[in-house]
Amino acid sequence: MSRIRHDGPLIVGGGLAGLSAALEAAPRKVLLVTPAPLLEACSSAWAQGGVAAALSAEDAPSLHAADTAAAGAGLVETEATRALTGDGRETVEWLAALGAPFDRNADGGFAVSLEAAHSQARVARVGGDGAGRAILSALVTAVRAASHIEVWEDARLRGLMQDATGRVCGALIERGEGRTVEVTAPAVVLATGGAGGLYARTTTPAALLGEGMALAWAAGAEILDPEFVQFHPTAIDVGLDPMPLATEALRGEGARLIDREGRFLLGPAADADLQPRDVVARAVHAAVADGRGAFLDARTAVGHEFPEAFPAVFAACMRAGLDPRETPIPVAAAAHYHMGGIAAGPDGRTTLPGLFAVGECAATGVHGANRLASNSLLEAAAFGRRTGRAAAAERGASGAPVQAVTAPGLGDAELLRLRTTMSADVGVVRDAAGLTRALTLIDELEATAGPALPLVAARLIAEAALARRESRGGHFRRDYPTASPQARHTRVTLAPDSAPESGVESGVLAAVG
């Protein structure tokens, strides 16, 4: 094992959050590590909708904050949300200045789209449905040109190092053909993405298995609301893994959800399909489950303009032998975004000194129980910038590493069993029997594979879902179909002497409250 002492932040992850943090940390030297070349294997590049921000004369950050809170079903943190929506315009302008080619109006202002649960059109887009890749491409160019950033594009996070006080003081990084490097640093920023790869039906890269969250928990960081997984209602159901996405902006333009008989899934009202994602996802899930099928019909609303208006969706459909100008698109609900994660503030600070978290692996309280559409790219960039500044201010107070938190890997066959079970039993609709089945499988796999990180992440989600005996936002229990009168967060720690309020016996869940 080789050892490197780095004098600035170590950032793990090359998506929008990680790149924003790296750029904003200047002039401190940054080491940015990713398991694949930049632009590959991160959810940011796959995002279609755009960046939500109050950009029009009719809009305001306070209206954006109110919509965010309404979608979040009682669990949105007010101050964090004010910070997010207040940063909206500045963040979009910063991205544009870096070269993000946002669509513009005739007067040069940002063109904005309406998406579900927004009271105003406020989603800044690129080429209709190409926002993620276009924005990330601009940041990749800036990162490659930045003299203060060193990038390793063959590096996987294998462990976190801590000193005698518990402060995180570095990470174990595996490079190339299994060569491990011990990197010490005054700050470690986790921007490792979400956990969609734990599900067989997902719109995210399959490599995103919640491993950053699992390592942070094992090191002693608090995990917030891990049970809240958002399922996108319009993943294109053509047998692919991951499933291509049909952006919500299609419904904003008037596309409708129907069954195979042409009946509206959510009713005939013009805005019926623009309800919060959890509501729409359950309707799609129910239609597929009872054999009626679910389809997104854009023939009238978009029609012949499809190739120019939504080129990414059009291309995905045509590759599957489906022309959406003539045929409704078959869709299903699929894991899309993890609202829960490592508890962190807007500046990325976690409950562990020296450890920061940003992007989808973090839970800052701005998404609550159900993320508002297109808030994720805003959070990644806005809070990424804040996190970069905060991490750069850390000045090497760490002692010598005395312990490293690591975990074994998980084989392909075991991962397939886990993914299948997570979709079936920890998916759109949950109940005690299914969640117990999932936890039994996790126990069985751990008995042979050990506490592999995907198993730890899956257990965090499933145990918290079993403990939450209500339905709220993205978490729906058929055996507890209503929301409790009081909204409560789930806070999970490693404390061995804690017990969950639900009575679930486990080595993971510490508390719901």
Largest sheet composition = 5 strands, mixed
- Note the gap between the termini: 42 Å
Strands of the widest sheet, in order across it, are 1-10-9-8-20
Q: What share of residues is helical?
A: 25-40%
Beta-strand percent range: 15-25%
Mean pLDDT: 92
Low-confidence runs (pLDDT<50, min 5 residues)? 497-513
Tally of separate helices = 14
Shape: globular
Evaluate the radius of gyration: 22 Å
What is the number of E strands? Answer: 22
- Going by helix content, strand content and strand pairing, the class is alpha/beta
Topology record:
Blueprint: E1 2-5, E2 10-12, H1 16-24, E3 30-33, E4 51-52, H2 61-71, H3 78-86, H4 88-97, E5 112-113, E6 123-124, H5 131-145, E7 149-152, E8 155-162, E9 168-175, E10 179-184, E11 188-190, H6 211-219, E12 223-224, E13 229-236, H7 249-252, E14 256-258, H8 277-289, E15 295-297, H9 306-309, H10 311-319, E16 329-338, E17 341-343, E18 355-357, E19 362-363, H11 375-392, E20 403-406, H12 412-425, H13 432-449, H14 453-467, E21 490-492, E22 511-512
